[in-house]
Write a structure and sequence with these properties.
Length: 336
C-alpha cells in the first residue's frame, strides 16, 4: 500500500491487539500518534481499509476522508493526555461503560464518491483498481464506438489501425539526441491490460492537454510490432506485444456524447423505490440534452420498457452518470 510503511503498520497491529477499531476517530486515538500522518490515513481510507468498520454507521469513504484532519487532531490530543497521565471527560465516560472510543465521531454530511472517483483513489493508494474500473460507467461493450480492447491487440496485424479506450498512465516526454527530436510515451490501460503508446513530436502539442487531463481517453493509431530476433525460438517466443503509434486522441466523454443515440436506465424493482422513481425527473433535468431516455424496469422475470418524454432528454456525460449513481446507489445507465 503506497504511503503506508512498516512502522505505521506495526503500530496499527499493536493497537488492534486490544480490540477491533470502532471508527476512524477510535483508530486515531489508539494508534501511536507518532507513527500516523495524513498520508497514511489517506491511503487507508482511499483503499477501503475502513469500509467494514464504518459500514454499520453508514459512513462513506468520502466522509471519512474529509474527517482525517479532525481525527488526527483528536488522536494527538488523546495521546498527549495519556502521556501526561490525564484523561478527558469523554475518556472517563468511555471507561465507565467499557468502551475504547475516546472521542465523538463527527463526520461531515457530504456526497459519497461516485464509482469513477472511488476507483481512481484506489489506484493512487494501491497501484491497481479494486472496486471496479473508471470505464465501467460507460458500459461493457465499446464496439458501438469502434473501440477494441487492449487484450485483443496482440492478435492484430502489424500496422493495423485501431481505436482503444482507457486511462493514461506515466505520461512523459523525451528529447532524443541528434535528429531524433522529441517524443512522448505513456501506458494506456483498460480492464484487460496495458499497451505502450508513442506520440510523435508533431502531435504532442495537440494531444498533451487531453492525455494529461486525468480523464478516460480514446486513442486512434497504428500498431507496430517488434521485429523478431533472428535466433528466437518460434515455439517459446510467445506473443509479441505491439506499441500503439498515436494518430488521434479524444476524451472518451466527448466520443460518448457524440455517438450515443439513447441512454437506457436499467432499474430493478428490488432496489428502485417509488421515491427514487419520483425523483428521477429532477436528476435527468440537471443534465438536460437531446439524447432520449429509455427506462427498463425489471420485475421478476419480466421487463417493462418505457420511453420517457422528450423534455426529459439528456446529455450523456459524466455529470449525468455521477448523478444517477448517487441517486440510485449503483450504476444504472446503459449507452445505446
Amino acid at each position: 500500500m503506497r504511503g503506508v510503511g512498516d512502522a505505521a503498520l506495526d503500530a496499527v497491529f499493536e493497537a488492534r491487539e486490544q480490540g477491533d477499531f470502532k471508527d476512524l476517530f477510535d483508530f486515531c486515538s489508539r494508534v501511536d500518534a507518532r507513527k500516523l500522518n495524513r498520508g497514511v490515513l489517506e491511503a487507508l481510507v482511499q483503499c477501503g481499509a475502513f469500509d467494514d468498520t464504518l459500514a454499520p454507521s453508514d459512513v462513506s469513504r468520502a466522509q471519512a476522508f474529509a474527517s482525517i484532519d479532525l481525527a488526527l487532531e483528536r488522536g494527538r490530543s488523546a495521546s498527549k493526555d495519556r502521556e501526561r497521565g490525564q484523561t478527558t471527560l469523554f475518556g472517563l465516560f468511555d471507561a465507565a461503560v467499557g468502551s475504547t472510543t475516546a472521542t465523538v465521531a463527527d463526520y461531515p454530511d457530504i456526497p459519497q464518491w461516485d464509482l469513477r472517483e472511488l476507483c481512481v483513489r484506489e489506484k493512487q493508494a494501491l497501484g491497481f483498481y479494486l472496486s471496479g474500473h473508471p470505464l465501467d460507467r460507460y458500459g461493457r461493450d465499446f464496439e458501438k464506438f469502434g473501440v477494441v480492447s487492449v487484450a485483443s491487440l496482440v492478435a492484430k496485424d502489424a500496422w493495423a489501425e485501431v481505436r482503444v479506450a482507457g486511462m493514461v498512465e506515466g505520461y512523459r516526454e523525451k528529447i532524443f539526441k541528434g535528429a531524433g527530436g522529441k517524443s512522448a510515451f505513456f501506458d494506456l490501460e483498460d480492464k484487460t491490460g496495458k499497451v505502450t503508446v508513442k506520440v510523435r513530436e508533431n502531435r504532442i502539442d495537440k494531444a498533451a492537454p487531453v492525455l494529461t487531463s486525468g480523464e478516460p481517453v480514446v486513442i486512434g493509431g497504428k500498431l507496430r510490432f517488434p521485429e523478431p530476433a533472428q535466433d528466437a525460438d518460434e515455439v517459446d517466443a510467445g506473443p509479441q506485444w505491439p506499441t500503439l503509434l498515436l494518430d488521434s486522441t479524444e476524451l472518451l466523454s466527448d466520443v460518448v456524447r457524440a455517438e450515443t443515440r439513447c441512454v437506457a436506465l436499467r432499474l430493478d424493482a428490488t432496489f428502485a423505490t417509488e421515491e427514487m422513481i419520483r425523483g428521477l425527473g429532477s436528476v435527468l433535468k440537471q443534465s438536460s440534452g437531446r439524447c432520449p431516455v429509455l427506462m427498463v424496469l425489471h420485475i421478476g422475470h419480466s421487463e417493462v420498457h418505457l420511453a420517457l418524454p422528450a423534455n426529459l432528454g439528456v446529455s450523456p456525460d459524466d455529470q449525468l452518470f455521477t448523478s444517477l449513481e448517487r441517486h440510485f446507489g449503483r450504476q444504472v445507465a446503459e449507452l445505446r
